[in-house]
Amino acid sequence: MSRGCGCERGVLRYIKPPYARLFYPACCIHDDDYDRGGDNETRKTADRRLFRNCMKIATGLQFSPWKSTWLTLIALLYYVSVRIFGRFYFHAV
Questions:
Q1: Whole-structure pTM value
Q2: Residue 13 has pLDDT above 70, yes or no
Q3: Residue 15 pLDDT class (50, 70, 90 cuts)
Q4: Quick count: other Cβ atoms within 10 Å of Cβ 51?
Q5: Using N-to-C axis directions, what is the helix angle for 40-60 and 24-36, rounded to 10°?
Q6: Do residues 51 and 75 make contact, with C-beta atoms less than 8 angstroms apart?
Q7: Which of 7, 31, 6, 32 is nearest to 20 (CA)?
Q8: Which range has the worst mean pLDDT, 24-28, 60-64, 75-79?
Q9: Taking 80 as the threshold, does the pLDDT of residue 84 lie above it?
Q10: 26 contacts: CB under 8 Å, gap ≥ 6
Q11: Which residues contact 72 (CB under 8 A, 6 or more apart)?
Q12: What is the DSSP string of the chain?
């Protein structure tokens, strides 16, 4: 069940990521990937997919170059965050 951007449990559940509404579709797909689970390579693929989907949003809409650059940095922050903290939420098989 997709929860969108951010953690559902633990201390991190109190932190709402920036632009969570904008990146909501990408986060839902990432949640579904995590719910399906798998091995470490599957998790890495899911995290890269999150980054690519966030980048599609950041660069695909009609944002100014400054805003697209800013959203690219936020997408990178999402990616780094799930690589660091995601292991606690991924359903390893």
A1: 0.91
A2: yes
A3: confident
A4: 19
A5: 170
A6: yes
A7: 6
A8: 60-64
A9: yes
A10: 50, 53, 54, 56, 57
A11: 55, 58, 59
A12: ----SS-SSSGGGG-PPTTTTTTHHHHHHHHHHHHH-B-HHHHHHHHHHHHHHHHHHHHHS---HHHHHHHHHHHHHHHHHHHHHGGGTS-B-
Give mean pLDDT, residues 26-49: 96
Q: Could you tell me the two tokens for 83?
A: 């690589």
CB burial string 28-45: b at 16+ within 10 A, e below: bebbebbeeebeeebbee
Our measurement of the distance from residue 9's CA atom to the centroid of its chain's CA atoms, rounded to an integer in Å, reads: 16
Say if residues 50 and 29 touch (Cβ distance below 8 Å). Answer: yes
Residue type, position 85, single letter: F
* Tokens 């951010």, residue located: 6
